[in-house]
């Protein structure tokens, strides 16, 4: 695996829970309809973070196995879902799913986490864990063209380079952009019937939310700055720069998510492991 899974988001969890926008209700409605979710399904949310998918999905299924390598992400998720009793929060990652003793799964959903995994090896393992008519759902938030970047991106990028250098960090290492798209990796996997869905909406953020959001990323979480003083200095400078561009303190930005819904071909009988 190119990254050490529990090394990527140190210190990010409270910012993640507070400042990441999550997913629109239409996304969950689509999952309900498409998979006929009726409270009997077993679903894995892999790389669940603080529960942006697991928590809204839980009322529609029997169990969500919410798996993440980051202890603090799981703790935040558990706290937010204190009243929900059908989410199992489990520490783990894409490379050790077999040790989690999961039941046969109806769906595996990955929200902005597939890029952290060894995608081909993971899909081949999921082929043994997902029921014959089950699905893999890969959700991404940042689309690949520059047009999808938020309008304040240049302000943040130049200030981040000043504090953390020009290369995109990823935990204690550097981000390695992969040439092959998620779509292409899925198409050559056992889950090769792939449909693409998108949802777009406008998001309103104030300047403090934009500042807080930066501490939720693998490349600019609090640990990257080395000290509370440097975090505070970055936050102050960013707030000032944003307010000078957006004197009202509020920015409206277009937001898009994309879901790749991947299934096996319809005649598939399966080779699910017996447990
Ligand atoms: C960007 S967050 C996504 C959180 C949430 N799913 C969402 O949609 O907002 C990515 C999550 O993937 C987790 N992660 C990193 N490497 C992983 C791996 N190899 N297997 C599973 N999860 C991983 C991180 O700890 C982090 O919580």
Concise overview:
The protein is an alpha/beta fold and 275 residues long. Helix content is 33%, strand content 24%.
Write up this protein:
The protein is an alpha/beta fold. The protein is globular, with a radius of gyration of 19 Å. The chain contains 10 helices and 9 strands. Helix 1 packs across helix 4 (71-80), helix 1 (13-19) packs antiparallel against helix 8 (207-214) and helix 8 (207-214) packs antiparallel against helix 10 (228-245). It has a 7-stranded mixed beta sheet with strand order 3-2-1-4-5-9-8. The chain has a domain at 5-144 and 174-202 and 254-263: Vaccinia Virus protein VP39 (Rossmann fold, 3-Layer(aba) Sandwich). It binds S-adenosylmethionine. S-adenosylmethionine is lined by residues 1, 5, 8-9, 20, 46-49, 52-53, 68-70, 73, 93-94, 111-113, 116-117.
Secondary structure layout:
Layout: H1 13-19, H2 25-35, E1 42-46, H3 54-57, E2 63-68, H4 71-80, E3 87-91, E4 105-111, H5 119-129, E5 130-140, H6 153-164, E6 169-170, E7 173-174, H7 182-187, E8 193-206, H8 207-214, H9 222-225, H10 228-245, E9 250-263
Parallel strand pairs: 1-2, 1-4, 2-3, 4-5
Antiparallel strand pairs: 5-9, 6-7, 8-9
What about the largest sheet?
7 strands, mixed
Ligand inventory? S-adenosylmethionine
Measured distance between first and last alpha carbons? 27 Å
Q: How many individual β-strands? A: 9
Strand content: 15-25%
Would you identify the CATH architecture of the domain at 5-144 and 174-202 and 254-263?
3-Layer(aba) Sandwich
Mean pLDDT rating = 94
Level of helix content? 25-40%
CATH topology of the domain at 5-144 and 174-202 and 254-263: Rossmann fold
What is the C-level CATH assignment of the domain at 5-144 and 174-202 and 254-263?
Alpha Beta
Unreliably modeled segments = none
Shape: globular
CATH superfamily of the domain at 5-144 and 174-202 and 254-263: Vaccinia Virus protein VP39
* Run of helices and strands: HHEHEHEEHEHEEHEHHHE
The computed structural class is alpha/beta
Oligomeric category: single chain
The number of helical segments is 10
The radius of gyration is 19 Å
């Amino acid at each position: 695996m190119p990254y050490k899974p529990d090394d990527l988001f140190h210190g990010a969890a409270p910012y993640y829970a507070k400042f990441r926008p999550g997913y629109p209700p239409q996304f969950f409605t689509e999952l309900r309809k498409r998979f006929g979710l009726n409270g009997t399904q077993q679903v894995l949310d892999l790389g669940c973070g603080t529960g942006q998918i697991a928590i809204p999905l839980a009322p529609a299924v029997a169990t969500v196995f919410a798996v993440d390598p980051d202890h603090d992400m799981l703790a935040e998720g558990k706290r937010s879902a204190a009243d929900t009793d059908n989410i199992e929060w489990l520490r783990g990652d894409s490379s050790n799913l077999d040790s989690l003793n999961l039941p046969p799964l109806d769906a595996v959903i990955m929200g902005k986490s597939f890029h952290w995994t060894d995608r081909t090896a993971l899909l081949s393992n999921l082929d043994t864990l997902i029921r014959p008519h089950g699905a893999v759902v890969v959700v991404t938030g940042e689309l690949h063209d520059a047009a999808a970047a938020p309008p304040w991106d240049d302000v943040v990028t130049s200030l981040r380079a000043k504090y953390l250098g020009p290369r995109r960090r990823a935990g204690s290492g550097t981000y390695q952009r992969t040439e092959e798209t998620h779509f292409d990796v899925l198409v050559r996997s056992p889950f090769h019937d792939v449909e693409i869905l998108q949802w777009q909406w406008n998001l309103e953020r104030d300047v403090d939310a934009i500042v807080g959001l930066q501490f939720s990323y693998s490349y600019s979480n609090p640990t990257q700055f080395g000290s509370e003083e440097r975090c505070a200095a970055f936050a102050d400078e960013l707030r000032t720069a944003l307010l000078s561009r957006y004197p009202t303190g509020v920015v409206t930005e277009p937001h898009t998510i994309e879901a790749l819904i991947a299934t096996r071909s319809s005649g598939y009988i399966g080779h699910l492991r017996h447990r």
